[in-house]
Amino acid sequence: MSKQSGRGRVAGLPEWDRCAVMGVVNVTPDSFSDGGRWFDTTSAVKHGLALVEEGADLVDVGGESTRPGATRVDEDEELRRVVPVVRGLAAEGVSVSVDTMRASVAEQALAAGAALVNDVSGGLADPAMIPVVADAGAPFVVMHWRGFLQGGNVKGVYADVVAEVTDELHARVEAVLEGGIAPDRVVVDPGLGFSKDGEHDLVLLAHLDRLLGLGHPLLVAASRKRFLGRVLAGPQGAPPPARERDAATAAVSALAAHAGAWAVRVHEVRATADAVRVARAIEEARTAENAPSASSAEGAR
Ligand code: PMM
């Protein structure tokens, strides 16, 4: 990964001097890595606050599992899961992101205090999404998405995954800008694991510079994903379960931070919070090394 200068700032959100950490609260019974653990409002809010305590800068609240083949929850149920958790966390001063493909959920979450809308469909699943986000003046995560998957991964065929994901994301960014979302409020995300196999995910991570070339802050969401299970398993072994992939996740967080990502989205915050701080310290050391020191400036006079 090569370093791109400047990780950008997202208007409407606090500014961090390093890669931000987005902690995940899935208010679902069936998310692949943590489904069912924070399924009632009280434990979900408590978990979000614990993530902040561990170093999360943002908390991403979702009420619908996006794992391949998951059946969609109905709108009322998604609202019931998400809105009280958003309200509870926002009331505690947390910067909340809402992970939803539904405009109605985004709208009510924003009214309840959410600061950011994270749509894994990049505005494709619900035509009302972009107008709702534009009207609210909210920041918006545009993830690379090729549609709902039913059965095999037929949409995950690429001749050049980096070029295609970059081009398709570029087209979605154009669409959201046309829809009235301000350019300084748009975040891009390669959508690791969405219509992509493990090799695709790794190649995308090897080329974050190309995604940064889109000119928008970049979110990387590798946490506990299948490709990490494959890497850890080796060619013959069985992948470790999702909850045993947190050290691998933190390694990706350090690399993504080093490459210039704006934020990383993770389930287990503590190790990633350490990773992005170390990446920042190394960046600072490089900056100090390149800046003329007081004594050499003296000498030059
Ligand atoms: N992945 C998941 C859910 N939300 N949001 C963004 N922006 N990017 C992602 O890659 C992404 C996401 C699926 O993971 P989970 O079910 O473990 O949270």
- Would you tell me the structural class of the helices and strands? alpha/beta
In this entry the ligands are: pterin-6-yl-methyl-monophosphate
List the helices and strands in order. EHEHEHEHEHEHHEHHEHH
Radius of gyration, in Å, reads 19 Å
Overall strand count: 8
Identify the strand order in the major beta sheet. Answer: 6-5-4-3-2-1-8-7
Low-confidence region ranges = 1-5
Q: How would a textbook summarize the main sheet?
A: 8 strands, parallel
The level of helicity is 40-55%
Mean pLDDT: 91
Q: What global shape is seen?
A: globular
TL;DR of this structure?
Catalyzes the condensation of para-aminobenzoate (pABA) with 6-hydroxymethyl-7,8-dihydropterin diphosphate (DHPt-PP) to form 7,8-dihydropteroate (H2Pte), the immediate precursor of folate derivatives. The chain is of the alpha/beta class.
